[in-house]
Amino acid sequence: MKPGKYDLLLVIDVQNDFCPGGALAVPDGDSVVPDINHMAGDFGHCVLTQDWHPAGHSSFASTHPGKAPFSTVIMPYGEQTLWPDHCIQGTQGAAFHPGLDLPRAQMIIRKGYNPEIDSYSAFFENDRKTPTGLAGYLAERGLKRIFCVGLATDFCVRFSAEDARKLGLETVVVLGACRGIDLGGSVAAGIAAMKAAGVMLVERV
Fold first, then answer.
1. Which one of 19, 87, 148, 156 is the catalytic residue?
2. CB neighbours of 139 closer than 8 A, spacing ≥ 6?
3. Sorted alphabetically, which SUPFAM superfamilies does this protein's record hold (predicted)?
4. For FRET with 106, which of 6, 22, 64, 137 sits at 20 to 30 Å CA-CA?
């Protein structure tokens, strides 16, 4: 499967805090970088997402006394996993992995900047109704199919892919260029949910 003129490479959250040594490290997370760099040369269109939290974000366990990272709370928009403090605006942890080489990238979508709402998807915040603007960008550019890569398979990749399908976009997740956190089987659950949503799952492009 080779990308065409109206295809987009969506590079999701390949940031230092999600790579080994980071505050919320995804196992083997940095290993996606060479694959993404290699793939990017075949795409005329590329967008990156960047987790971009203010300090004291409501999704941080540290803002909920007595709560541990990876526990859950009920927020006004539903259940929320609580995370270690990560990807805080302007910090080195929030920066993209230094090995990324994406000269054709045209836009960065920053998400999670609202202190009261987390944002996994590249398209909507976790209230499932506040848009990031990515859908409008794709529509105006005439882009019809997206290829999702990055971190993490079971959260930001999964929800981005599912939302893309809900918006009527042909969606491919390149699993070989993704890595997951896997909380209690969340990778398998995420893959099943993406399949059910009509996402095409491939190992390589």
1. 156
2. none
3. Isochorismatase-like hydrolases
4. 22
Pairwise CA distance, residues 198 & 121, whole Å: 17
Per-run averaged pLDDT (10 residues), the chain, 205 residues: 92 98 98 97 96 98 97 96 98 98 96 97 96 97 97 98 98 98 96 98 95
Residue 58: count other Cβ atoms within 10 Å of its Cβ.
18
User: Which one of the listed residues 13, 17, 51, 85 is annotated catalytic?
Assistant: 13
C-alpha 173/C-alpha 169 separation (Å) is 12
Return the SS3 of 173.
strand
Give the E-state strand segments of the chain in sequence order: 7-12, 46-51, 72-75, 78-81, 105-111, 145-151, 170-179, 200-202
Contact partners, residue 155, CB within 8 Å, separation at least 6: 120, 181, 186, 190
Residue 67 falls in the annotated catalytic set: no
Specify the 3-state DSSP secondary structure of 135. helix
End-to-end CA distance of the chain: 6
Q: Tell me the backbone φ, ψ of residue 89, rounded to 5 degrees.
A: -45, 130
Answering whether pTM is above 0.90, one says yes
Q: Is position 5 annotated as part of the catalytic site?
A: no
Question: Which tokens go with 6?
Answer: 């109206």
Task: Dig out the tokens for 30 from the structure.
Answer: 């940095």
